[in-house]
Structures are given as structure tokens and as C-alpha cells.
Design goal:
The protein is mainly α. Helix content is about 70%, strand content about 0%.
Length: about 200
Amino acid sequence: MRCSARFLGFFALAAAFALTLSMTLPAKMAMADFDAGLQAYHDKNYKLALENWLPAANAGDPHAQHMIGFLYAHGRGVKKDLKRTLRWWQRAAKQGHLPAQFTLGNLYLNGIGTKRDMKLAAKWIGGAADGGFADAQFIYGLMHAKGEGVKRNIDMAMMWLNLAARKKGVAPSAYWTAILPYLTPSERNDTRKLLEDWKPKLKR
């Protein structure tokens, strides 16, 4: 089970990274500086990317802070340092930056760069889920199914999975199967019944 959680955690970090690149930047951060850093990143010139992002990050820009956190997470242009990743993402998350809240929560969920802390994982992933971040809604749904950091509640798990599916534009049934391993036999039967009822509707 632990390996599965770590896999989800790293998958989540990659997904949030991709989404961050497409987010609208705040006015206080020069688009040219961010774009220059992004181009440098794509060119694998990670030190130059850091040079472009660091001034804005130090000035408090959460987008730049989040990206620098990824540099330290992967050891690109800097020595790999997950504790620095944690600190950069904490700074960004506290400003309400949804991808940072999500990735920070995953660090706590998986014990990466810090001790596992289910309550903090639920706080930050739940915050991103409340803000409409689909990947956070999916993971938050799993957390409710497993009772990680929150009271186990299958109805809440289904709700968050439904919201994530709606955000992603896919059928909710595509996500419901993710919680099957964490259900009791009775709950599993109920969910499978929902899956069976849903399939005919997709053909209409």
C-alpha cells in the first residue's frame, strides 16, 4: 500500500507541474522573466531558469516559488534538496496557490522531504480540492475512501471523485473504480451496481 501511495504522490507532482505552466501569471511577475525561465527549463539550462525565477520568488511570487521547488525536488540546476522544496512550496501554498497546495500536501501524504503527516496532507490537498483543482479532488476522494487524514466517508469520497471527473470532462464511473480496493465487500457491491447503472447512460 505504501508503494502505491508513493506512486500516486509522484504522479501528482508531475501533473501539477504541467498544469502550473499553463496558469495565468499575476501582474507583479514579469511575463518575460517567467517565460525566459521556462524556456531555459525546456532547454535544460536549469541554472538560468533559477536565475530568472529567483528574484520574483524572493519577492513573494507563488508561481516562481512553486517552480523553484520543482528544481530542488529533481536536483536540476541545484543540489537535490527536498527540504528546500518543502519550504518553497509552503511559501507558495500559504498564498493560496492551488498547485503548490496540492504538491505540498503530497509531500506530507508520502513522507517526502518530511515526516508523513496525514492531517497536514488533508489540509493542503483539501484546500486545493476546495479551490477546484481536479487532481487534488481525485486524491482527496481517495483519502476519504481510505480514512487518511480525514474521517473515512465513502459518500464524500464519491463526491470528490465526481467533482474531479466533471472538471476533467470524463465519466464519473472512470474514477469510481479507483476506490474499489479500499471498500468493504458490501460497499464494493454498491459501487459496482452504480458502475453498471452508469454504463447504459453513457450510450444515450
